[in-house]
Structure formats: structure tokens, C-alpha cells
Amino acid sequence: MSVLNLARPELLKMAPYSSARMESAALPLMLNANESAWPPPGDSGRGLHRYPEPQPLALRARMAKLYGVDDEQVLLTRGSDEAMDLLVRAFCRPGHDAILINPPTFGMYAVCAAVQGATVVEVPLDDAFQLDEQAMLGAICANTKLVFLCSPNNPTGGAVPLQVIEHLAGALAGRALLVVDEAYIEFADQRSAATLLARHVNLCVLRTLSKAWALAGVRIGALLADTDVIALLRRIMPPYPLPTPSVAAAVKTLEPAGEATMRQRVAATVSERERLRVALRELACVRDVLSSQANFLAVRFHQAAEVQRALVAAGIAVRDIGRYPRLCDFLRISIGTAEQNDAVVGALASTTVVA
Ligand SMILES: *Cc1c(COP(=O)(O)O)cnc(C)c1O
């Protein structure tokens, strides 16, 4: 059975927009897209007066190789945020269908659902911030089209074991898509769920260049999924989503030298994360630090609001995550350089706020 049985039927029937780029091969004189005949000043050969390739083949091939999937299983998107939005729009009928999430988790899934008019079913993580698989399966109903799973999870930092992901994908087959958001997987000590794609057509994996690859400003992410899902999302996606300068920056960074730099920095971040965790635990103002597979730590303080004020006074911004269920008194601290992390510990050690 195709996963498209789960999609909004009206979209399958809709005639998609057909762009000039799609309708014509590259010819010597391109007068089919109402582009300017001249490049902008200072263009230096970039060709910014031309609409970009809708799915740049070289970048797609590079990312497919990086993630260990076929080129056709990759959809390049404006950050993984766009992929979440496209999935909700393609699979959830407003006022009818639902997504399932495991709070405390990334806020964008529920926002995408709210914008689309889809219901959000919440199955909270357990007391140890682990996934409650039985409760999730029990909460799935006929209208639940997408199950979002964040691994490693933002903001708690824990990863979902691959066996659990595989078991969930199997249990949801024919009923819902399992969307695994791997924004932080490069920092984790387990493999990507992309390795399971060949066996599960209802599995989708979200990857991004925003975190480990240091390209948050470039806005490029990827959806790894069954080719039917990708073809469907392309029907509802804007025709030219990826800006030419962003594609060029991504291609450059993904070259071998850039990859080597990324790997060094990921290793440094992981080692700093563990060092910072130990250092924070020794501070009087800290109650607990959750173990993390990502590039941040969720830290429980005795008096989080006062601690945050003290950090702001020291010129340090951290994220208040106290509004999430069961994260009252937690702050989320991104891992910086060794010097930056020392500054955090120094500022916390000199605060007078304690138990
Ligand atoms: C940062 C982050 C992303 C990345 O979003 P982009 O749109 O690719 O920048 C995705 N998911 C989670 C959970 C994140 O924390």
C-alpha cells in the first residue's frame, strides 16, 4: 500500500504549479521566465538574475551521499522547519486530522499543526524523559496522520534508540507517518534512522545544515523519505525554494575540508558538553543536569529566574524552558567554545543565588 493513501486526497488531484524551469530544458537563449536580461551589479558570474534550480542536483547528490540514501529520497528544503510544515499541510485535513507529539519537545510541530488547523495529540515523555511507546500506540486513532519524534530531543537532549524507532515505524505502517527529527544527530552516539528507510515507507527523517554544519543562516535542510512522499511535497512547495547564494554556501561547506572541520567541531562540542555537565553539577545553584546527546544541556536550577537574570547581567543569554511541562526551573544552555563555557560557569559560580 502506498503511503499516499494517508495524504489529503484533494492534493493528489490538484494540478500543481508548473514553473518555467520545469517546462524547458536549458537553451542558449532563455526568454521564458521574465527574468532580467542583465545580472545585478557585482554579480561576478553567480547568475543571480536567474531563478535557481528548484532542487539543485549537485547539492542533492552530496547530501544523499552524506546521509546514506538515494538521491531520489532527498527533498531539499528551507531549513527542516519547512519540511515539517509541508508534511503537516500534505497529510492533515484542517479540522479533521491530527499529529502526535511527545512533550516536552520542539515547539514547531504544534505550531505547524495549529496553522494548518490540525489537532495536536500529546503523549508526554515519562518521568525519566523517555518515550512512552505503549502510551503513544494507544493514543493513535484513525485521524492521526503524523507522529513527530525528536531524536535527540530538543529541549531535553535524550535520543530515542533505533530499535524503538524501527518498532514504532512497523506498528504505524499503513496508519501514520513517523517523522524523526534529527537536527542534532551528529552530536549523538547512535546512527541516523535514515538507515531504516529502505524497510519502512512510512518513515521520514529530517536533517539540517543549521546545527553541526554551522549554516543556520543559510536555511537548508533535507527531508529523507519515500519517493512518493517527496513527489507529493514537491507539488505543494513553492517553485524556487532555495536561494542561489545559500546553495553555493552549502556546496562549499560540504566539500571534504568543510566536512573535516565539522567533524572536529562536533567532537569538541561533545567533549565540552561532558566537561560542562560535570562542572555545572558541582555548583550550589544547580539541582540537576540532564544527560544530553545534542549540543546543549537542560539544567535544573534552584531558582531559574534569578539565575537567568544573573546571566543576563553577565551578558550571557540562555533559553528559559520553564514553560514546558515538567521543566519548571530548567534553563537550556547551548554548548559554546571552552572559553564561553568557562564564562558560563564563572558567572554561575559568582551568583549569590543558591538553594
Ligand atoms: C534547530 C532545530 C531544527 C532546525 O531547523 P532549521 O529550520 O533546519 O534551522 C529542527 N528541529 C529541531 C528540534 C531543532 O532544534
Question: What do you see in this structure?
Answer:
The protein is of the alpha/beta class and 355 residues long. The chain has 12 helices and 11 strands. It has helices at 9-13, 20-23, 57-67, 79-91, 108-116, 133-139, 162-172, 227-236, 244-253, 256-281, 304-313, 338-349, and strands at 74-77, 98-101, 119-122, 144-150, 177-181, 203-208, 221-224, 286-289, 296-301, 319-320, 330-334. A hairpin with a 6-residue loop joins strand 8 and strand 9 (296-301). The longest helix has 26 residues, at 256-281. The radius of gyration is 22 Å and the shape is globular. The relative contact order is 0.13. The mean pLDDT is 96. Bound molecules: pyridoxal-5'-phosphate.
Task: Give a topology summary.
Blueprint: H1 9-13, H2 20-23, H3 57-67, E1 74-77, H4 79-91, E2 98-101, H5 108-116, E3 119-122, H6 133-139, E4 144-150, H7 162-172, E5 177-181, E6 203-208, E7 221-224, H8 227-236, H9 244-253, H10 256-281, E8 286-289, E9 296-301, H11 304-313, E10 319-320, E11 330-334, H12 338-349
Parallel strand pairs: 2-3, 2-4, 4-5, 5-6
Antiparallel strand pairs: 1-7, 6-7, 8-9, 9-11, 10-11
Helix pairs in contact: 4-5, 10-12
Bound molecules: pyridoxal-5'-phosphate (PLP).
Please compute the radius of gyration using only Cα atoms.
Answer: 22 Å
Which structural class fits the helix and strand makeup? alpha/beta
Share in β-strands: 5-15%
Measured between the Cα atoms of the first and last residue, the distance is: 58 Å
Q: Can you give the mean pLDDT?
A: 96
Shape category? globular
User: Count the helices. How many?
Assistant: 12
The succession of helices and strands, N to C, reads: HHHEHEHEHEHEEEHHHEEHEEH
How many beta-strand elements? Answer: 11
Q: What oligomeric assembly is this protein in? A: single chain
Summarize the biggest pleated sheet.
Answer: 7 strands, mixed
